[in-house]
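Deliverable D4.2, example record:
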Amino acid sequence: MAERDAPIDDRIARVSEREWRETGLDALLNGAREPFVLRGLVADWPLVAAGRDSAEVARRYLLDHARDRAFKVAIGPPGHDGRLFYDADMAMNFRTGTGKLADIFAGLEKGEILGDIRTVYLASIDIPTHFDGLDDANPIDLGARDLLKSIWIGTRTRIAAHNDYPDNLACCAAGRRRFTLFPPDQYRNLYLGPIDNTPAGRTVSMVDFAAPDLAAYPRFADAMAHAQTAELEPGDAIFIPSMWWHHVEALADFNILVNYWWRRTPAWLGQPQDALHHAILAIRDMAGEDKAIWRDLFDHYVFDNDGRATGHIPEPARGILAPLTPESAGRLRAFLLRTLSR
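Output generated by the structure prediction step:
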């Protein structure tokens, strides 16, 4: 694969682009299961205008809205290449800390002046709790969706391919971003790392996209045959459906991304990742014949879910086999907490 600042490899499919002005954003997003790019979606944001002026103006704009509280930041050591990943011992190759946004920006600007540019990355900062009025000043209409609103700020970075459970609309506000996307079923070809030791909470691909080692990761070539890529300029946005893998590169010296996450299911339902962790704890190390029994039971109660498990039970007596409600989900969550604390 080409170096990160080179043009996109022509052999990789481009993410399709959609026209949103006539169709409407809400209509495009309803039921969408494929990624697409929306050029100029947030081009009229004041934040985008500030970023087009200069990195310094963009930083001042953010400081004008920043709350007086600590921001979490990842910082690379001298010589760090922007790839926020593992080191040779499978620890993180960056350190994390907290500080006021003004102090973080002051350190970044000092490095720019001295020519000692370190990797600085503020990832997934919750906008309402860390900024006052930033969301209102840079609006987007996503209908009745229950949104998690985040901002990502930093220098040139490379974020390993990972996926997220919610749907994601990512808006480039300053700098440039390159996304390389893979369908959910490509996880075997991406050579995923540990589940419980991750750079940012999600399992990541172990492949270095800038210099893929196909001797160590031969199936990565198959993943790239299914890849789609897009490069965003300020004002552009990309829709990343739930569970699509995405490798993200910040290509400018200073970059800002704003993204919106939302679930297709109610927030009171559980997180599938928690169920995976529990299955590893309770089922994975069973004997093969025992696992086969539990696989069949999971199909019966969870994946098929076609009525055969409940048709013979009176409706009032179906308990958690009936469609969950906030109340029954709460009771189930309380039961799980009691059993897991034993």
